[in-house]
């Protein structure tokens, strides 16, 4: 007996076999995963290790329903997550001069006002420079007086 199969029929048959094979494979591996989590007392389990926990552990079992009176009260919700705290305003403080800090008038994270004194720099390192600059100013004023008399 000879069977004549057209190309279209062969393609449809091959497609049906492929879909059935894929479905069977998915079902097989899905059942294995459900068995593993049930045996290990998987996530959301009711009995811990060895109990009927995990996805599929309580499938198709009767569940009792109990009626209770309504109560008011606080429900504590704790959410833990990883994240980054971003401040509303960020300021980078840089001094106009270099020197040793003698006192800091704020704590990290504290709110500060515009124009508020934030830190003191040791003035001794600048005292010598101030004396030198005053001497240069006196010499420049004497030179100015000499040039005026010469003019």
Can you give a write-up of this model?
Helices cover 40% and strands 5% of the residues. By secondary structure, it is mostly helical. The longest helix has 33 residues, at 7-39. It is elongated, with a radius of gyration of 42 Å. The N and C termini lie far apart (135 Å). Residues 39-51 have low confidence and may be disordered.
Structure summarized in a few sentences:
This protein has 151 residues and is mostly helical.
Uncertain stretches: 39-51
Q: What is the radius of gyration?
A: 42 Å
Question: Based on the structure, what is the oligomeric state of the protein chains?
Answer: single chain
* Biggest sheet statistics: 2 strands, antiparallel
Adjacency order of strands in the biggest sheet:
1-2
Give descriptors for this structure.
2 strands; 2 helices; two-stranded antiparallel sheet; elongated; 151 residues; mainly alpha
Any chance you could write out the topology, listing elements then pairs?
Layout: H1 7-39, E1 101-104, E2 119-121, H2 124-150
Antiparallel strand pairs: 1-2
């Amino acid at each position: 007996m000879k069977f004549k199969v057209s190309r279209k029929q062969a393609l449809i048959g091959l497609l049906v076999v492929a879909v059935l094979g894929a479905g069977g494979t998915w079902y097989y591996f899905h059942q294995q995963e459900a068995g593993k989590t049930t045996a290990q007392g998987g996530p959301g389990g009711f009995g811990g290790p060895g109990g009927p926990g995990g996805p599929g552990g309580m499938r198709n079992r009767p569940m009792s329903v109990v009626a209770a009176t309504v109560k008011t009260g606080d429900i504590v919700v704790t959410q833990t997550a990883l994240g980054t705290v971003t401040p509303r305003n960020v300021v980078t403080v840089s001094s106009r001069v270099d020197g040793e800090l003698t006192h800091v008038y704020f704590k990290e994270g504290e709110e500060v006002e515009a124009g508020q004194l934030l830190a003191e720099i040791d003035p001794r390192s600048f005292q010598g420079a101030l004396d030198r600059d005053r001497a240069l100013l006196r010499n420049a004023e004497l030179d100015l007086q000499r040039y005026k008399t010469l003019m």
